[in-house]
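User: Hi! I have a protein structure encoded as tokens and I'd like to know what sequence might fold into it. I'm fairly new to this, so please keep things simple.
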């Protein structure tokens, strides 16, 4: 089997669209619409990488994962459960560690590249 480097700008990936409000109890403000393209998923399904775009809104952050993000365009805030917030804009990169509790707040439509390691909890 040949293993190749995946070029996000050249690979078609697997596309998905969803309205986050369709996930019960997730959205806090707005009606964010998401479009994701997954360019890589390992055989175990616990590591994925791709590109994601969201319209404005605020929602409970997903847990049981570590996520590296690079903001391609847009403006977001990560708001921790204690109320502290960090703002990220085009060109910024950050890591959300496993165990983070808080919110995503997309202030203007944002596109990011991501790499996520998911953890199964018993």
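Assistant: Happy to help. Inverse folding works backwards from shape to sequence: for each of the 122 positions I chose a residue that suits the local structure. Here it is:
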């Amino acid at each position: 089997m040949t293993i190749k480097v995946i070029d996000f700008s050249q690979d078609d990936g697997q596309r998905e669209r969803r309205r986050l409000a369709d996930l019960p109890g997730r959205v806090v403000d707005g009606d964010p619409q998401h479009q994701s393209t997954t360019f890589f998923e390992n055989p175990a399904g616990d590591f994925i990488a791709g590109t994601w775009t969201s319209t404005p809104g605020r929602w409970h952050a997903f847990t049981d994962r570590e996520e590296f993000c690079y903001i391609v365009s847009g403006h977001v805030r990560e708001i921790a459960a204690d109320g502290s917030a960090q703002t990220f804009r085009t060109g910024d990169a950050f890591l959300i560690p496993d165990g983070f509790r808080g919110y995503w707040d997309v202030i203007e439509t944002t596109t990011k590249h991501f790499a996520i390691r998911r953890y199964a909890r018993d």
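A useful reference point when you look it over: Strands lie at 14-19, 27-30, 33-41, 47-54, 57-60, 65-80, 85-89, 93-96, 102-118. Feel free to ask if any position seems puzzling.
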